[in-house]
């Protein structure tokens, strides 16, 4: 499929690559090292949108006329605080203990940027975790890679499979990309999948 507009996914996330591949739209991956800092006054979706927009700003001057870059950032919001990627296994364990038996929100901010257009949006999913045992948490930490995931877990991995009782909202948003919204916005940028 040759599209008049080329899509660039600015993410190393294997989950985002997998989700976007499901649309059967050709894309390339280009990643720049961008600091994921935000002002402390930002809350919930403001954080996710700010980070996605900040990542996109690193590409703006390099984009060709026929290119659109897609950036995204996913955060976990629990009881008025953000759980980003844990710095080590000890912090990952603390995060999973906090999520155990609680409801949290997964918020993904997305930015689509071209020479002419700029669109920032987000999606929110509510995730209900049952109580997790220490053995279950330790097993997950030992056999999976929680350090590259907001909230220290992947919905598609062991802890998500056995721990999540229900999700209100998009499953794919919890994975890292609200693909139903991305699909609609890509049309606005001239990327027509069908």
Task: Describe the protein's topology.
Blueprint: E1 6-9, H1 14-21, E2 27-29, H2 44-57, E3 67-78, E4 81-83, H3 89-99, E5 103-113, E6 118-129, H4 134-143, H5 158-163, E7 164-168, H6 171-175, H7 179-188
Parallel strand pairs: 1-2, 1-3
Antiparallel strand pairs: 3-4, 3-5, 5-6, 6-7
Helix pairs in contact: 3-4
Written description of the protein model:
The protein has 194 residues and is an alpha/beta fold. The protein has one domain: Maf protein, CATH 3.90.950.10. It has 7 helices and 7 strands. Strands 1, 2, 3, 4, 5, 6 and 7 form a 7-stranded mixed beta sheet that branches. Helix 1 (14-21) links the parallel strand 1 (6-9) and strand 2. Helix 3 (89-99) crosses helix 4 (134-143). The chain is elongated. The N and C termini lie close together (10 Å).
Question: Alpha-carbon distance between the termini?
Answer: 10 Å
Order of helices and strands: EHEHEEHEEHHEHH
The CATH C-level name is Alpha Beta
Strand count, sense and barrel status of the largest sheet are: 7 strands, mixed
CATH topology: Maf protein
How many strand elements? 7
What is the arithmetic mean of pLDDT? 93
- The percentage of residues in β strands lies in 25-35%
């Amino acid at each position: 499929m040759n599209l008049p507009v080329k899509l660039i996914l600015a993410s190393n996330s294997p989950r985002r690559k997998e989700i976007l591949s499901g649309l059967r739209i050709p894309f390339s991956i280009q990643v720049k090292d961008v600091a994921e800092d935000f002002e402390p006054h930002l809350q919930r979706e403001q954080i996710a949108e700010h980070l996605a927009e900040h990542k996109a700003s690193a590409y703006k001057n390099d984009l060709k006329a026929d290119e659109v870059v897609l950036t995204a950032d996913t955060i976990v919001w629990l009881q008025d605080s953000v759980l980003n990627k844990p710095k080590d296994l000890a912090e990952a364990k603390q995060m999973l203990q906090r999520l155990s038996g609680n409801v949290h929100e997964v918020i993904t901010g997305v930015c689509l940027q071209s020479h002419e257009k700029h669109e920032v949006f987000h999606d929110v999913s509510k995730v209900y975790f049952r109580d997790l045992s220490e053995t279950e948490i330790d097993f997950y930490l030992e056999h999976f890679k929680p350090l590259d995931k907001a909230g220290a877990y992947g919905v598609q991995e062991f802890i998500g499979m056995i721990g999540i009782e229900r999700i209100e909202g998009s499953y794919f948003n919890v994975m890292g990309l609200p693909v139903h919204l991305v699909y609609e916005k890509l049309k606005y940028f001239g990327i027509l999948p069908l």
